[in-house]
């Protein structure tokens, strides 16, 4: 299984809807691919944060840097 194939099946992996043979292939890929393991872990964490409705207060310096980066990106479009 390639990373592209894994990512195409990511929602089934997260929802645990994948058939057992496919799930085994996905798990085997994860054991050999740190990039996809990080992607899966990060996606799960993002979903958890979204579902918990937790608000995170950003430090002022980080908020300002993020704002500037977003504005700079928007100006390029």
Model description:
With 77 residues, the protein is an all-alpha fold. The chain has a single domain (3-76), classed as Arc Repressor Mutant, subunit A (Orthogonal Bundle), CATH 1.10.10. Helix content is 79%, strand content 0%. The chain is built from 5 helices and no strands. Helix 3 crosses helix 4. The longest helix has 19 residues, at 34-52. It is elongated and about 50 Å long. The mean pLDDT is 89.
How far is the first residue's CA from the last residue's CA?
Answer: 36 Å
Shape, principal axes of CA atoms: elongated
Strand-residue proportion: under 5%
Mean pLDDT: 89
For this structure, the CATH topology is Arc Repressor Mutant, subunit A
What CATH architecture label applies? Answer: Orthogonal Bundle
Gyration radius from CA atoms, angstroms? 17 Å
Q: What's the tally of helices? A: 5
Structural class: mainly alpha
Oligomer: single chain
Low-confidence blocks of residues: none
Q: How can the largest sheet be summarized?
A: none
Which CATH class is shown? Mainly Alpha
Percent in helix: over 70%
Summed up, the domain count is: 1
Order of helices and strands: HHHHH
Report the count of strand segments: 0
Please describe the structure with a list of short key phrases separated by commas or semicolons.
single chain; 77 residues; mainly alpha; Arc Repressor Mutant, subunit A; 79% helix; 0% strand; elongated
Task: Summarize, please.
It contains five helices and no strands.
């Amino acid at each position: 299984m390639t990373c592209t194939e894994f990512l195409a099946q990511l929602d089934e992996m997260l929802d645990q809807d994948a058939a057992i043979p496919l799930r085994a292939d996905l798990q085997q890929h994860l054991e050999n691919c740190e990039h996809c393991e990080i992607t899966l872990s990060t996606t799960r964490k993002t979903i958890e944060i979204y579902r918990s409705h937790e608000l995170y207060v950003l430090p002022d310096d980080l908020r300002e840097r993020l704002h500037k980066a977003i504005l700079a990106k928007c100006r390029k479009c």
